Amino acid sequence: MSKIFVDACLGKETPYTPVWMMRQAGRYLPEYMAVRAEAGNFLNLCHNPKKAAEVTLQPLDIVGVDAAILFSDILVIPDEMGMDLEFIKGFGPKFNDPLKSQTDLDKLIGGEEAASKLTYVYETIELLREQLDARSDDKALIGFTGAPWTLATYMIEGQGTKTYNICKKMMYSNPELLHNILAKVTEVVKFYMEKQIEAGIDVVQIFDSWASAIEPSMYDEFSWSYMVEIANYLKEKHPNVPIIMFPKGIPAFYDKVYGNFDVFGVDWGTPMSLAKEKLGDKYVLQGNMEPCRLYSKEATTKCVEKIQETMGGKRHIFNLGHGILPDVPVENAIHFVDECHRVSGKK
Fold first, then answer.
1. Checking DSSP bridges between strand 92-95 and strand 85-88, what pairing results, if any?
2. Which of 128, 147, 228, 337 has the fewest beta carbons closer than 10 A?
3. What DSSP line would sit under 25-59, residue for residue?
4. Which residue of the set 154, 164, 226, 283 is catalytic?
5. Is position 315 annotated as part of the catalytic site?
6. 169 CB neighbour count, 10 Å cutoff
7. Model confidence over 209-245: pLDDT tens digits?
8. Nearest-5° Cα angle at 167, 161 to 169
9. Is residue 27 flagged as an active site residue?
10. Is 73 an active-site residue?
């Protein structure tokens, strides 16, 4: 069965514009919270293939999106490389042993050996592939990874940060060490995403959530080039699997975007018209409603209509310009999906 979402990623004509939401399997859904409570905590849920598959599929049935995105977390990669990860309630992820030296980096597992430890992710995908193939619809399955730079920020800072000063101190004072960290993470990500594809995902998305922390003149060297290296590797191995790149907050870099991928994710801070002008001929565009518009059905409809007017239903996938927030009413998320389908002609 041809999947509308996959066709849209490849720039093919589709009967309507498909839609999904970043963080669509998450805390705004009571059904998700129930499963997470059963699992005990967030990391336990990531490690439980049956429960992870269950929450992955919830937004398809409850909200009506056109693609499921694998429920996992970007930080399972450094966790399985050998770093000490914990999720602290009210605080977030924390590494108790952040990277400070080449010696610290050398202690970590790399390459395919590290990627092979993520068996629970591949088992989740296999369960999802089986369940999705048994359905009568054509919903696609998205796999994902954090970009090496975004992963490295956590590995070096030890936690989320607003200033990135430890990472950026390394960028300017010890760039060789930062490049060594990025290169090691990139090798793990290549194998990790290849194994996700082999397990059954339809589309890959590479998130660079902290792209805007890097000044534009340095972005290619310390982030984009590594993302492109991953995309090139995957395209060589699996040329028919679409790749979505989502670097958040870098409109100043749009003139310099390059690489062998299919879809460019546009964040909410960038006008869709600008993205279309700079990148619309080269890549399918995804996005980019401001997530807080979901608090108002009226504001949602207005934005969806504007995006549709800009893109004209061509070479586009509807999405938010970042993740859905935990306190958004479920009915408002459903309204967003319904409006995307309505304006793009789904009967």
1. antiparallel
2. 228
3. SSTT-HHHHHHHHHHSSHHHHHT-HHHHHHHHHHH
4. 154
5. no
6. 12
7. 999 999 999 999 999 999 999 999 999 999 999 999 9
8. 120
9. yes
10. yes
Q: Which two three-digit tokens encode residue 276?
A: 């279309």
CATH number at residue 300: 3.20.20.210
The strand pair at 140-146 and 67-69 is best described as parallel
Helix axes 49-62, 30-39, angle to 10 degrees: 170
d(CA 297, CA 266): 22
Residue span of the structural domain in which 124 resides? 4-343
28 is catalytic: no
Q: Is position 293 annotated as part of the catalytic site?
A: no
Under the phi-then-psi rule, with left for phi > 0, alpha for psi from -120 to 50, and beta for the rest, what region is 111?
left
For residues 69 and 205, the answer to whether their CB atoms sit within 8 Å is: yes
pLDDT of residue 174 exceeding 60? yes
Which entry of 7, 27, 120, 129 is annotated as an active-site residue? 27
What's the Cα-to-Cα distance from 253 to each of 4, 171, 201, 256, 257, rounded to whole Å?
A: 30, 19, 29, 5, 7
Cis? peptide before 174, omega within 30° of 0 = no
**Structural domain total, the chain:** 1
- Percent of the chain scored above 90 by pLDDT? 95
CB 211, CB 147: distance < 8 Å: yes
Distance from C-alpha of 17 to C-alpha of 314, rounded to nearest angstrom: 8
Structure tokens belonging to residue 21? 């939401």
How does 111-131 read in b/e, with b if 16+ C-beta sit within 10 Å? eeebbebbebbbbbbebbbee
CA 197 to chain centre: 15
